[in-house]
Design goal:
mainly beta, 13% helix, SH3 type barrels
Length: 91
Amino acid sequence: MTHDRTMTLYFNDGSKMTFEFPEQAKSVAAKQIKLSEFMNSKNVVVESEGQLMVFPMTSIKYIAFNSAGPSFFKGPALPRQSIIRARIRDF
């Protein structure tokens, strides 16, 4: 199992936490369901190294997902209001 994806949680207090993980769903339909459930959730729930961690969305400033390959964003459709192919200029 390849852990080729990362998720970084940036918290309101300025701290951050990064997780590596494998692909969570194979089919486009399953990815779409997971994305929809994630977007509508009040918590980010992560199982890691024998622990179950629950992060309230209210304590998270933003979440960054990254992948080792271009296939990460292929499959599930992003919400219609999403801005795509953007570049970060000043951060």
